[in-house]
Amino acid sequence: MEIERFTDGTPCWFDLYSSDPEAASSFYANVLGWTIESGGPESGGYKMCTLGDRPVAGIMGQAAEGISSAWTSYLRSSDLTSTLTAVAGAGGSTLIGPMDVLDLGHLAVVLDVTGASVGVWEPTTFEGAGRVGEPGAYLWAELTTSSLDWSTAFYQEVFGLVATEESAQSNDARQFTKGGHPIIGMVAHEPADAVADSWTLTFMVSDLEDTVVRAVAGGGFLGGPIVELPVGRHATVTDPTGAMFGLLEPGH
Question: Are 89 and 49 in a shared domain?
Fold first, then answer.
């Protein structure tokens, strides 16, 4: 569906920091049907990905050597300065920024209370993704965390997200809402596991098998079998540059 404005605390934009932006562009154009164009010198070569002439994501080179290719989700803020103050007060820290992005808006990347990185976007002329919740576009963001309770407190305090009543006491997974609408999910992992606290983005597709075939043919890797979930069929894929993401074909 087309989006004109996001609510604060909602994932509103999605960047891929890639070790090979050209290879990544070819991959996602083929797998998700994106049209990808590079910006001018003033954008540092930032690539804008569109679906049906609406922006859905961006691709850029890595900020520094040795950093793994990864997707970053940006949560909307009407006041970036206040949000960064809240981040510090809740036990997090600022990793990148705050910085201006042309005349489009202001961004920062922060570390939450468990060390997972997440972006914050304050729009001026650019609200964020123009399409979500449709084939080829962003569908869901999920945080894998070593402490559901710490993460719950952090995102509630900083972004105003609220755990649903039925999931609030779960030790395995939680779902969060803003204004009564589902916003993000969290799943728990043991601190001793070889898993870093991190976010995973999931994109919607209409035919999961076909999309997976094209992803693998394009140099991607399937991170396990296709699984049946209450909301549909899901697969985890790693792109040719090492960035992991999810694909979901909704149930009927």
Answer: yes
Asked whether the beta carbons of 211 and 201 are under 8 A apart, the reply is no
Reduced to 3 states (helix: H, G, I; strand: E, B; else coil), residue 94 is: strand
CA-nearest of 62, 244, 200, 49 to 128 is 49
Q: Are 13 and 128 in contact (CB under 8 A)?
A: yes
For residues 106 and 144, state if they share a domain: no
Task: Give the model's pLDDT for residue 129.
Answer: 96
114 and 202 inside one domain? no
Segment 4-27, tens digit of pLDDT = 779 999 999 999 999 999 999 999
State the Cα angle at 177 between 153 and 14, rounded to 5°: 90
Record the pTM: 0.93
130 is a domain residue: no
Boundaries of domain holding 18: 11-123
In one-letter notation, the amino acid at residue 188 is: A
- Is the distance from CB of 15 to CB of 71 less than 8 angstroms? yes
- With contact defined as beta carbons under 8 Å apart, do 23 and 219 qualify? yes
Question: pLDDT tens, 73-88?
Answer: 999 999 999 999 999 9
- SS3 (DSSP) at 180: coil
82 and 151, same domain (yes or no) = no
